[in-house]
Amino acid sequence: MRVLAAMSGGVDSAVAAARAKDAGHDVVGVHLALSAKPATMREGARGCCSVEDSRDARRCADVLDIPFYVWDMAERFREDVVEPFVAEYAAGRTPNPCLRCNEKIKFTAVLDRATALGFDAVATGHYARLTDGVLRRAADPEKDQSYVLGVLTADQLAHAMFPLGDSPKSEVRAEAARRGLVVAEKPDSHDICFIPSGDTRGFLSSRIDEAPGDLVDAVSGAVLGSHGGVQNFTVGQRHGLGLDRPAPDGRPRYVLGIEPVSRQVQVGPVESLDVVALSTEAPVWHGPRGSVSDVTVQVRAHGGVAPASVEIRDDGLSVTLGAPLRGVAPGQAVVVYEGDRVLGSATISATS
Q1: Which CATH class for the 274-351 domain?
Q2: Annotated catalytic, 98?
Q3: Among the options 48, 49, 60, 101, which is catalytic?
Q4: H helices of 184-236, where?
Q5: In 10 A of CB 168, how many CB atoms?
Q6: Do the first three CATH levels of 209-272 and 274-351 match, i.e. the same topology?
Q7: Residues within the annotated binding site?
Q8: What residues does each domain of the chain span?
């Protein structure tokens, strides 16, 4: 097969490209330039897509003796990932930009261009497994990234390749060192790639006008204070609420709900964060129609797993949890698993 290897400049994508070549495929490496100002998108282990990353990817391609190109995706990334990220926070929701990048950039924009150029598949360094077109969890549970791939359609999965799915990270780094790849010990990227400082609140405040509102006790209805905008909060947040007095019982308060129209942020005790049901929209479903039981769902990239039963509708999934989850926010994705198999996903629109 002709395989386009997406090479971020990190160790995972470099080894994925190497394994694709070892498997006998005709491999071409491509680095995605996602920032109009690439020098601003890495601070140590934070961020990605810098000039440094592009150069590291090129060096790895040279060692692997594969052709290498840089594709400018900055405008598409801004339109499909960054702007929706800002809009979701302004609407009082909590988005997952890594998941949307996989959906909109790597396996839509890049895959569309790749297939138009005659490639059969796109290979990435994600830790997940594909068997006969079925997406499954990675063998290494600590590195499993099937959650952020759960939005991919059957057609996208049919043109995807995840060569690292059966390997632990330690094995991948050791292999990179054996191959002489300069990224063997390069730190993994953390946090949101387009906010390398890690200051999400500062990033949002520079793009969303201040719209003051009230902080309200969800139990008593009392106004406890004011805030500068709903974009500064997410469900489950404890710190940075700006409250000058504790709850009557001395216990900490958490964000329980966000109302973007009234600009009201509700706070209350931690047990009020418990969620037992989810309503969703924009489903992607690979499993049987109707309903499924004895499945598990995941609502965050790391953690947030619970047993559940799911009713499948054309407009979304109705999820009943077998055990409560805390800190679940509209805007997050829920991914449904049967064992290690991904059955589908949807975006959470409401919780109860």
Answers
A1: mainly beta
A2: no
A3: 101
A4: 200-205
A5: 16
A6: no
A7: 6-13, 32, 125
A8: 2-178, 209-272, 274-351
- Buried-state track 222-242, b at ≥16 Cβ within 10 A, e below 16: eebeebbbbbbbbbbbeeebe
pLDDT in tens, 169-209: 999 999 999 999 999 999 987 778 888 888 999 999 999 99
For residue 85, pLDDT over 90 is answered with yes
Phi, psi of 350 (to 5 degrees): -160, 155
**Average pLDDT of 32-37?**
84
Q: What does the pLDDT read at residue 43? A: 55
Taking all residues of the chain, what is their mean pLDDT, rounded to a whole number?
A: 94
The class (CATH top level) of 209-272 is mainly beta
Q: 85 near 98, Cβ under 8 Å? A: no
Contact between residue 283 and residue 316 where contact means Cβ atoms under 8 Å apart:
yes
Report the relative pairing of strands 26-33 and 68-72 from DSSP bridges: parallel
Residue 271 in this model has a pLDDT that exceeds 90: yes
User: What is the C-alpha separation between 133 and 30, in angstroms, rounded?
Assistant: 24
On the question of pLDDT at 42 being above 90, the answer is no
Specify whether the CB–CB gap between 165 and 128 falls below 8 A: yes
CATH 3.40.50.620 holds for 2-178: yes
In 3-state terms, what secondary structure has residue 55? helix
Which residues are 267's β-sheet partners?
Answer: 217, 255
DSSP state of 102: I
Give 112's contacts (C-beta < 8 A, 6+ positions apart): none
Crossing angle (nearest 10°) for helices 51-64 and 11-22: 20
Rounded CA-CA distance 60/31 in Å is 11
Binding residues for ATP: 6-13, 32, 125
Asked if 295 and 336 count as a contact pair (C-beta separation under 8 A), the reply is yes
φ/ψ of residue 327, rounded to 5: 70, 35
